[in-house]
Write a structure and sequence with these properties.
Blueprint lengths: L2 H9 L4 E4 L1 E4 L1 E6 L2 E7 H4 L6 H4 L1 E5 L2 H10 L3 E3 L8 E5 L6 H18 L2 H8 L2
Antiparallel strand pairs: 1-3, 3-4, 4-5, 5-7, 6-7
Amino acid sequence: MEFETFKAYCLSKKGVEETYPFGDMAVWFKVGEKAFCWTFVEMFKMDEELKPAFTFVNCKCDPVQAEEWRVQYAAVRPGWHQSKKHWNSVFMDGSLTDEDFRMMIDHAYDIVIKSLSKKMQTEISNS
C-alpha cells in the first residue's frame, strides 16, 4: 500500500485527525485525541528496495489479537517504541495484502473508539 492510500484510508474513518506531533517526521492518526496508528512519513515513501527493512506502521491492538497476528504474519512484530502489549509494528515488506493491512487499521480504530466516552462516541458517529 502506498503512503497516500494509507493516509486516505485512515482519514476516511469518522472523527479521525492527522497530526504531526514531532514536526513532519511522523504522522499520527487519532480519534478523540487518542492515537490508533502512526508511521514515519519519509520511510514510508522510500525506494522499494529499502522499504522492507525500514518501513512500518504502528497499530494499536488488543493484546490477545496482537500475539495472534505476530504468529500468523512475519511482517507483524511487537510495537516499536510503544507498549509491546498494546501495539504492533506492521512492516511494509509486501507480504501482507492491502486487505489484511486495512483489517489491522480497522481493528486499531475500533479499539480506540470503544475506549472513548459514550458521549464522545456519539459525537463522532453523528459527525
